Amino acid sequence: MCGITGVFDTRGQSLIDEVSLQRMNDSQWHRGPDEGEIYMEPGLGLGHRRLSIIDVATGQQPLFNEDRSVVIVFNGEIYNYQSLMTELQTLGHVFRTKSDTEVIVHAWESWGEDCVLRLRGMFAFALWDRNRQTFFMARDRLGVKPMHYALLGDGQLLFGSELKSLLAHGGMDRSLDPLAVEEYFALGYVPEPRCIFSQARKLSPGHRLSIRRGQPIPEPEEYWDLRFTLDRKIGLDEACAELRERLDESVRLRMIAEVPLGAFLSGGVDSSAVVATMAGLSDEPVNTCSIAFDDPAFNESAFAQMVADRYKTNHRVETVRSDDFDLIDLLARLYDEPYADSSALPTYRVCQLARKHVTVALSGDGGDEGFGGYRRYRTHLAEDRRRAALPASVREPLFGLLGRLYPKADWAPRVLRAKSTFEGLARNSVEAYFHEVSILRGGMRQRLFSPALKAQLGGYDALNVFQGHAAKADTEDPLALIQYLDVKTYLVGDINTKVDRASMAHSLEVREPLMDHSLLEWLATLPSDLKIRGQEGKYLFKKAMEPRLPDDVLYRPKMGFAVPLARWFRGPLRQRVRDAVLGPRLAATGWFNHDYLRHLVDAHQSGAQDYSASLWSLMMFESFLRQVVDGESTGLPVSAVEEAASLS
User: How many CA atoms are closer than 13 Å to the CA of 123, on its beta-carbon side?
Assistant: First the structure.
């Protein structure tokens, strides 16, 4: 696990500035504190920060082939590297290391751009082939590992694991993309391939980019997509048995390491299943860690302890106080873009705890998307059945009117909170799901944004992101469609972003066995009623895990990994939220309606409405403007900032 960065001259062989390249590499020190090297040749500069996991002795990067005509920097893990190494040796390749990085180099020599089709794992890499005069970048299928890039006016291409490495170069424009602002306030993150900065882009999951020096730069090419065929005829017992086998294989592959290894254990189904599987594959007790909250409404530690006791794990627990909000500005620097998932706070803390004991941790991320676990899935399917009962010509005007007239009633019993239901019934399935997951819904964003920002948007709506993916989903099944949308948006832009930045801030590698692409491909062949049956989400997964986990873990209500924002903003953060949302930095953008900002703050703090998610997104945007755009941050690596602030 590492941080990679570099500069490539797409037009010729201009000299790369070594000072800038070194600064780019140093900005990602936290991603790889063990070693750091740069390599330069005319028209190319590569940087690498290493967190040693596999082939600790000889796996240094940048890494070359035998005649040094191909050089690579790589971030991630290739879990099938040993079998690929054997295959490549039979093709005549000679290995000087035992690393998965060298496997990619020789795979490129044998299979070219299609080498990515042979890789099973999480990865982002960039390589230069001098003989072919080709620069090649690729990102793993599920976007577990990040890749950012920017093309400068002089033809230099900057790339890096984190946006901070591009910013450290000094040549990238820091102008913000108004379309990214619209997407952020809708979703709480900036979805691929857009970045908050106009000049930068993210390489989308399952995409590759091949550039021949001196030729026009093509658009990235998709090499993988998830297809929901739902055509596998299989009984429940057979499906359970096969799922256990596939999970065993996925976990086993991710337990290969030359450093201490463990797992997160939240007490939910996903992490508990991973820990149970690890215990069955290991002769030694599994190292597990959990975060407990002093607020019972958010505390799952008793269920984590139940699993830890059953499998006799080496379990560590730390309690996070319910007012643990000291990290707000650090998070803004950590994520480089505005990022509004408040569970980043406890995620940061659990990574901090894990790194005290292990270097690699397995997680349960991806289980909800793959197995159908989110409550919103069941809500959406129920609404879809209601939508199907009325023709659109009747449904849309009727429920559209009711949605506009019915008051927002967060204070009322759930049965009386009909506004969102009416609004959802007035839309088609894709529009309704986008509406459901939006932080500030369409009408709220219209009230939030100033005429100046609306003019820059030119009518653009973040709904376009979902519509674009839906057009490629190739399924009419309502559950499969929203699973596909989540795999393309929420899983990548929110979940994977959160875990990557939080873990790498502590030089911790996190591996996600439930995001194994072959496992997801298999799940996509199964009928949807194996994933949600009645009101039971993750039906197949829970049935398959019954021999391994207690019912109290499998069938209890889902809690999530949340923090008490609503209470914070009416109590200990009352003044801070007012200062941020109504203060000079947001006003200076000219993008926001001050009267509506005041309404959000006043209505929330009076208890009339719950606008906590909207206020958090505004607070994080304001902190991003100060920390990243204005450069209030120290310029030190994240870990150095943390140490200086005495947060560890």
Answer: 28
